[in-house]
Amino acid sequence: MSKFTVIDLFSGAGGLSEGFRQAGFTVVAGSDNDPDALSTFSRNFPEAQAVLGDVRQPAVRERVLDAARQVSVLAGGPPCQAFSQVRNHARVIDDPRNSLYREFVSILQAALPPAFVMENVTGIDQMGARHQILTDLASEGEYEVRAQVVDAADYGVPQTRKRLLFLGVRRGLGMIAPTLQGSGATDSVALARFAGDRRPRYQLVVQQNLLSMRVAEALADPNDLLAVTAEQAISDLADLPVGHRNDALSHHELPEPKTAYQTEMRRMCKTLALNVQVPRLNRDTELRLIGIPQGGNHRDLEEALLERYLTGHKWGQSNGTGLLSRKHFYAYRRLFPSLWAWTLNTKSDCVYHYSSNRALSVREFARLQSFPDHFVFTTDLRRGMIDGRHDGGPAHSRYRQAGNAVPPLLAKAVAQSLANQLGNVAASTQKRASAG
Q1: Do 26 and 148 belong to one domain?
Q2: Which residues are catalytic?
Q3: Which domain holds residue 192?
């Protein structure tokens, strides 16, 4: 498969690229407007061309197009902000707020690679835009395209994360647009909340069928990679120091891997574990975490812990009621150790450890996204608000990059499905050449 190549548009840190690399592809180039995310891409893919800037700018677009004309697969997840416009019968590709999506389609049609993948949020389906996007990507019959909603946890990622994939192959080359086949794990088990005498508790509920029982066995087996739990993903990092300014630890300071997943994540990282800094918590948050069970959230708090400020220290925004507001619905959520994590977002406080009263490090975010430990998240060394940079500083940027990424194990499954089709074409071509 080393002869297959890929370019990653809107690459971010490089989750799609990492998955394709693990599937045997050579990453030729990545492009993004965020200088911090592209610094991460550059560090982890030094062999690839890193194209920084807005792809709508002619000079940037030309560099991207030059690389796209050389590759086997065009990959990317263009931001799309106006899918709701289809309700007003406007074409998705014509809406000016979807200009980055239009660039992806334009580059696809200009480069005409043998195959492509475009990933995006599942909200596209809710807004009725799937058919229009299939039509755009088909490029007047040039490509056969299939759309599919997948969940990362069905591909060995210790996190539920649904994405909508569009996989396309050039017609006339003997390929078929593939469909991914996951484990079905996410339809087999669920986390249920039960009222207890003192406080609620959470436990797994398993359907009584063979697949569900198989998934339950995998979740209980630390050496089974069919389905991976949060604890199986990060338990070897449980004792990371809180508030430590050093973002690196020697592997000698960590316990031995406890699960097959941890072994795999650490396989190519022999010396230092990076991105291990754990942010400090204020006292209010610590008090609330003590009152939340594993798998729980703010609705499990006792009434006294629902006050906006518990210790008198004023922090964050107040809604004037003296209580937590509706925006805290997704706050104070603790992982459930025996199940995969819920979908991470871009903030360090979107999830808390299942047993320790602390937030997670960027490395633990990365583990839950299935990034191997040798994949390092960094930022552009330039200071201040440079073009394309998001507010929040370097620490927030690293969480943003990890939380926004496509899980590499999901990307690897995509890459393998396309590699199978590309391999069939290569084999047929070679056979014909030998016969001639």
Answers
A1: yes
A2: 80
A3: 184-226
